[in-house]
Design goal:
Length: 189
């Protein structure tokens, strides 16, 4: 718990050897100030492990040995794993949102900002998407599976069509309106 509290940089500077020994690794000397620039506990854990040059797998192993819950381990490993992912354009940002959702993407951007990265493009694009009501999951899509059954689709065709339509909406190729989505699906069959 000391690793992601408000005083984490001071604790690490003073007791780095003890924390490292408890966690099972050598804690390198370095700048742990990014921990103070994030507000979410998951971001702080990820920032700690990034500062300590840990991979996502190593961080997960350490957190497992320290008996962190699965949700914290999963989030932290995902943030570390995506930390250096290339999301410099709208397409890659859309792909990240589709895979991970808005909340995760916001946490990742906050983590990147804590390390001094310029995230102005990503923040603006994410804010615009949310403001425009662009869904990041099938539940937010204007049509559902039952409507595609009426179009004659069956089984896996329904899921594939919905996922394809969702991607088109997120990439702003079509609007998230029932008629536009159905027209798109009919056109891609």
């Amino acid at each position: 718990k000391l690793l992601y509290g408000a005083y984490a940089p001071r604790v690490i500077a003073s007791y780095g050897d003890v924390i490292g020994a408890a966690a099972g690794f050598h804690l390198p000397d370095g700048d742990y100030s990014p921990l103070t620039r994030v507000s979410d506990a998951g971001e702080r854990l990820a920032a700690f492990f990034i500062c300590a040059d840990c991979t996502a797998d190593a961080a997960d192993d350490i957190m497992h040995s320290l008996r962190f819950d699965n949700a914290a381990r999963t989030l932290t490993a995902a943030l570390i794993g995506e930390f250096n992912a290339d999301i410099a354009d709208a397409g890659s940002l859309c792909t990240l949102i589709l895979r991970r959702g808005y909340d995760f993407t916001s946490l990742l951007l906050g983590l990147r900002a804590a390390f001094g990265r310029d995230i102005s493009f990503e923040e603006r694009y994410l804010r615009d998407m949310r403001g425009d009501g662009i869904p990041c999951g099938l539940s937010g899509l204007a049509v559902g599976g039952s409507e595609l059954i009426d179009l004659g689709l069956r089984g896996r065709e329904i899921g594939a069509a919905l996922n394809c339509a969702l991607e088109a909406v997120v990439r702003r190729e079509i609007s998230n309106e029932r008629a536009a989505v159905i027209s798109y699906i009919k056109g891609t069959r």
